Amino acid sequence: MGSFLIALLFGLSIGTWIYTKMARQSGYGNAKSALLGAGVAGLGVFLVLFTLFKFVLGLK
Fold it and tell me: Measured between alpha carbons, how far is 20 from 32 in angstroms, rounded to an integer?
C-alpha cells in the first residue's frame, strides 16, 4: 500500500474514534461540534503521517 492510502486509513480511523468519544461525552446532542473536532483531528493525523511516510521514511 502506498503512503497516501495508509495515512488516509489511519486518519479516518482516528477521526471516527474521536467522533465517538466526543459525541458520547456530549450525549450526541452536539453532533456538529463533535464532527468538526473529529474532522480536524483526522486531517491532522493524516497530514502528519503522510509527511512522515513520504518524506522521512521515503515510502512510495
Answer: 12
Question: Can you read off the three cell numbers belonging to residue 8?
Answer: 488516509
Query: Going by C-beta distance under 8 Å and a sequence separation of 6 or more, which residues neighbour residue 12?
Result: 42
**Stated pTM of the model:** 0.81
* Residue pLDDT, tens place only, 13-60: 999 999 998 888 877 777 888 889 899 999 999 999 999 988 887 776
Confirm if 16 and 35 have CB atoms less than 8 A apart: no
For the chain, domain boundaries = 3-56
Cα 16 from Cα 20, distance rounded (Å): 6
Residue 55 to residue 60: CA distance in whole angstroms:
9
